[in-house]
Specification:
The chain is mainly α. The chain is built from ten helices and no strands. The model has no long low-confidence stretch (mean pLDDT 92).
Length: 198
């Protein structure tokens, strides 16, 4: 990468860390320039506005999520093994990505859900893609005979996302180990309810 590309990548890494800690609303040209150790004008050369910076950080978070959760899961066999791998990678993706303060995408969804505009659209696009990809994984599991043929795919995806979001909430506010145990129990119940009859 060029020097400019390296600088942009360093800025986005710092932006993700800050968003994980304090949310995307905390991202400003000034605060991030100070965190990265460059001038405001230097950062402004890469991101012309705060909104552009927020959108780029959201896209970087989505890309890191894909690299940490979806790409490793593709190594698992199609069907239920891959679906389980997605769930496992999703539970600890922030820790493995160095975002120890929690999921920046979940924070962005809460911050921007009622703020129309380009930033909200970027967050919405990410979660729409996530739902589509999870739906494809569920359909593969149905095709492999691992889940019922009459399964409501959209409902399964909704329930799976709800389990992970509840886990992230519980792990941050209460006891991480207890939240993880409950999430695993809930996921197994979801799988059992979607499995073909013996």
């Amino acid at each position: 990468m060029s020097k400019g590309d390296n600088t942009r990548a360093a800025i986005l890494d710092a932006a993700l860390a800050q968003a994980s800690e304090s949310g995307f609303e905390s991202l400003t040209i000034g605060s991030l320039a100070e965190r990265v150790g460059i001038s405001k004008s230097g950062l402004f050369a890469h991101f012309g506005s705060r909104e552009e910076l927020q959108i780029a950080a959201i896209e970087a978070a989505a890309a890191r999520f894909t690299e940490t959760v979806f790409i490793p899961a593709l190594k698992a066999k199609r069907g239920l093994p891959r679906l389980r791998a997605l769930f496992e990678h999703w539970l600890d993706w922030t820790a493995r990505s160095g975002l120890s303060h929690g999921c920046p995408m979940q924070a962005a969804a809460i911050e921007f859900d009622d703020q129309p505009g380009d930033v909200r659209d970027a967050v919405s696009d990410h979660f729409a893609r996530l739902e589509r990809e999870l739906g494809r994984a569920v359909e593969l599991a149905i095709g492999q005979g691992h889940l019922r043929a009459d399964l409501d795919v959209g409902q399964f995806v909704f329930d799976m996302m709800g389990i992970v979001f509840a886990y992230q909430h519980g792990a941050r506010l209460f006891q991480p180990a207890k939240a993880e145990a409950r999430a695993r129990t809930a996921f197994e119940r979801l799988i059992d309810s979607a499995s073909p009859a013996p």
